[in-house]
Design goal:
2 strands, mainly alpha, about 220 residues, single chain
Length: about 220
């Protein structure tokens, strides 16, 4: 486990994430309006989401989802590797949960499973290279996997989670909301768009966040 985050750094990160929430909140709404305004795209995406929700409501919620445990711990491990941390062990069990032992830690690694839709991003990465006639399948899979992410976010984000206790619930909520808007928005953009559209989404969120900060500054200091 890592030491507690420096309070000043924590405050700065929270402020940046709040600005990001404002920016990517606007970008997310634009992406949803643009990409879900097409009936075939909306139908495939919604069908995938509904199928997973029904599976979860009828079967998985009662038995416990082994796959959600694996995905949770894999996301911890992936972000640990991205931060050049050594992963010593990995385990996942349906009834007893999972555990990944990492050499070193930070709040991004700790919170990653709550904001990074691993399965959806994997589909988004390969989607631009798939032929047009198969795009509806990938749109459905994005809906399916995003619902997987959101359902388990809703069931796992609670005060008794050690990942959240280490960073604090308020800070964790701010960080998780910001990154969900960023990554889920990318997935929504990818429903009909390619790499250029996803890049535009990232830029729009940054510009909208910058505009929000400038407007706020003028309100209080001009």
């Amino acid at each position: 486990m890592s030491a507690m985050m420096n309070p000043f750094l924590k405050f700065v990160v929270a402020i940046l994430c709040l600005a990001g929430i404002a920016g990517y909140g606007r970008a997310f709404l634009n992406a949803a309006h643009t990409n879900l305004n097409d009936p075939p795209t909306l139908a495939a995406f919604a069908a995938g989401g509904i199928i997973y929700f029904l599976l979860w409501a009828m079967f998985l919620s009662k038995r416990g989802s082994f796959w959600s445990v694996i995905e949770h711990e894999m996301t911890h491990a992936l972000f640990a590797l991205l931060f050049f941390k050594k992963v010593h062990s990995f385990s996942a069990k349906r009834r007893r949960g999972g555990n990944v032992v990492i050499e070193g830690d930070n709040f991004i690694i700790a919170l990653a499973p709550y904001f990074f839709p691993l399965l959806s991003i994997a589909i988004v990465v390969i989607k631009p290279s798939i032929l047009n006639q198969y795009q509806w399948i990938l749109q459905g899979l994005i809906g399916f996997t995003l619902m997987f992410h959101l359902v388990h976010l809703a069931t796992e984000f609670h005060p008794s989670q050690p990942d959240l206790q280490r960073s604090g619930m308020v800070f964790s909520f701010i960080v998780v909301l910001f990154f969900n808007l960023l990554f889920v928005g990318l997935c929504i953009t990818a429903l009909r768009g390619g790499w250029a559209d996803m890049g535009n989404y990232l830029r729009q969120g940054l510009l909208e966040g910058k505009l929000f900060v400038e407007q706020l500054w003028r309100v209080f200091f001009n």
